[in-house]
# Entry
Amino acid sequence: MSATFVGMPAFPAAAREALSDTQLRRNLAHATGTIRAKRAAVVGEVDEWEELRMAGAAIKDNTLRHLDEHLLRLEKSLTDRGATVHWARDAAEACEIVASIAKQHAVDEVVKVKSMATQEIGLNEALATQGITAWETDLAELIVQLGDDLPSHILVPAIHRNRAEIREIFRDKMAAAGRPAPDDLSDRPAELAGAARLHLREKFLRARMAVSGANFAVAETGTLVVVESEGNGRMCLTLPEVLVSVVGIEKIVPTWSDLDVFLQLLPRSSTGERMNPYTSTWSGATEGQEAHVVLLDNGRTRALADEVGRQALRCIRCSACLNVCPVYERTGGHAYGSVYPGPIGAILNPLLRGTGVDDQVDSLPYASSLCGACFEACPVRIDIPEVLVHLRSKVVDAHRSAPKAEAVAMKSASWVLADSKRLGLAERGMGLAGRLLGRFGRKVMPGGRRALGRLPWPGSLWSNARDVPAPPAESFRAWWRREGRR
Amino acid sequence: MSAREEILGRVRSALAAADPSLAPVPRGYRSVVPAGDVVELFAERLVDYRAELTRCTADTLPAALASALGDAGSVLVPDGFPWEVPGGVPDTGQSAAELDRLDAVVTLAALAIATTGTIVLDHGPGQGRRAVSLVPDRHVCVLRTDQIVPGVPQAVAALSPDRPQTWISGPSATSDIELNRVEGVHGPRTLHVLLVSS
Ligand code: SF4
# Structure
């Protein structure tokens, strides 16, 4: 069992809330299970899958090791092809650039393609403070935005909502945002999608400016790539006069031909499809559209400087690691307190934001059982468990000056464990407690073992978000003495 | 210091101690081709994506085109599309709102990918600008069998980044509502490929 850094209830507290939400747990288990099965089937079709993973990891590593050169090359190829390149040190600077482009064009609303980078920088909220409305156009993001809610999964952000809730959100909120939902709207998925189609089409057709992210940016040719399913991406990318793309500096691949690796790895890992319905590529300003690209740092250079953690910047945001993670499956995305949830969020957030600054962030490297399923699933072979362990040590180092409850608990544990007589005594105590608690423990864990509810302090710091198995009524050592003699 | 200088400086200092040597990139995957007939594979995978498929020859194409367009009263026809289309409207740079009032669009494609059932438009002659294959609700695409490549690596190698591209695999789709697949949220609800034997 891995030690949990306690003293910061952030993830555990949020997770406890999520764990008690049976609807969320059921929806998530269904979603992750379904996507997992689809993914396994389409990955199984590709004999050269392991080689593709190796190639993907190598290309990304090579790019990161010479990132300065690739950034300059990307800037030049974009500029040569008529795009304007902006650089943003942090979220505030990136948001300000987007807002100022909107103002230059006297635009007070923009349509948006779902993008992790723009969520990371809080673009919608920042634009709102300047009187600019940003409309999310992905169906799930629309549900989240209208419901005044947070996304819970990278790929299926509204998975925590069922169809009846979605119908209510559409009926209550669509009118204030534009075209109202039809009066007789039912909760059939096709009808709900139809209502979203009409509501959003009105926005696409009148929008003059769009904001997107990019899945890949090709340094050699200045090509940006957006991978999507619904066509809202294509609507945003092609209809408005002005397109602003916010692109993390880690999104670079060196050459056009390198895309043959990622356009195989991403769809199969992500939605479990052989290919996503739509992929758009464009190089610079095309078809008369004004194109801007904002190259975003916002902590990426901090992550780059971490020798072990650097590999997290290979991430292509496929969400495969979320769908295989036993912790994520039970808690959902909200508990991670970030736009990057799940195993990748557990390492990316501390890497981008640093350790020892924020308790919520510091709790994330512990939000894992280190089972290794995420590494197996990752199409670019990010060794998430390795980075988790590395970050745990950084968190501990950052908190070394002020010993926290866990350190105290672990010290006393090591005092007990270090001496067999003391251990025997402690075990007898445990056995007694086990007999008592086993009788009164009300919970039953999978497999029928009795579980305790909350432990008294300091054990409570650990048990708050977990079911603790009731200790056995007899210790192993006692059993050995009794049985082993025979 | 400008943001550009500062970010480049941070990148360089982050990498100061990093090993600059490059890892070898295995490329054996590029020579892997699917077993069997790529045309049959493409047809099977395309239909798997709930796109409609009609096999035809140069002779039967006009009839197939008319039937794929069905009752569409107005059909956008891009420059360079080589056949007569009943109800055809030439592309005169219609606005998005005007495109929205058309029933269907016909296009050619640059190539298609067998293993994934994907058609790729690079918006050359007969394929139209990117918006025309997006806004009308029915997209009918005419493809020759000799335009089908086996896999993604062959497609990337054959395409030029100089042209914008749209890769299309089946009609627009979403699984956002309780993971039920629904076709046509924002893009065309029907994709109909006419595959012409060559
Ligand atoms: S870490 Fe790997 S598996 Fe997880 S989202 Fe990123 S690329 Fe996908």
In short: Chain B touches chain A through 71 residues (CB under 8 Å). Chain B is about 20% helix and 25% strand.
